[in-house]
Amino acid sequence: MQHQATLPGMFAPVQGVLAIEPAVPATEKQIAFAKSIAGKMGVTLPTSLFANRTSLSAWIDKHKPKPPTGQFANYPSSKQVQFAERIARLKRREVPHECFRDKTLMSRWIDGNKPR
């Protein structure tokens, strides 16, 4: 005679993945950014995406414009240059010329010279 130990739930049918928390609605900033992307692309944005922050974030990642590539991709943005020049005027210094050719150097210079 064979005796099987009874373990509760051992042979129960497998349940699917249960949601731990309900879906969190998208933020206003997410919705505004997604609408601006959709407007530039000429695409209609499904309103069902607004109910779930994660799905809207995935849609934004899929459709957002790609960063520039090419010869000038590593140059600092005009806003970075303007901010650096404003800091330089306040501190009565010059922004090093190398910073105008590399956005990483410009960012480091800004971080090191920001008024506190």
The tally of beta strands, per DSSP, is 0
Query: What's the total helix number?
Result: 4
- Overall shape: elongated
Q: Could you list the spans in which at least 5 consecutive residues all have pLDDT below 50?
A: none
**What does the average pLDDT come to?**
86
Order of helices and strands: HHHH
Note the main sheet.
Answer: none
N- to C-terminal separation? 82 Å
- Structure class: mainly alpha
Essential attributes:
116 residues, mainly alpha, 0% strand
Describe this structure as you would to a colleague.
There is one protein chain. Among the domains are: 36 residues, no CATH class; 36 residues, no CATH class. The model has no long low-confidence stretch (mean pLDDT 86). The N and C termini lie far apart (82 Å). The protein contains four helices and no strands. With 116 residues, it is mostly helical. Helix 1 packs parallel to helix 2 and helix 3 packs parallel to helix 4. The longest helix is centred in the first third of the chain and has 14 residues. 7% of the residues are buried.
Brief summary:
The chain has 116 residues and is mainly alpha-helical. Helix content is 43%, strand content 0%.
Topology record:
Blueprint: H1 28-41, H2 53-63, H3 78-91, H4 103-113
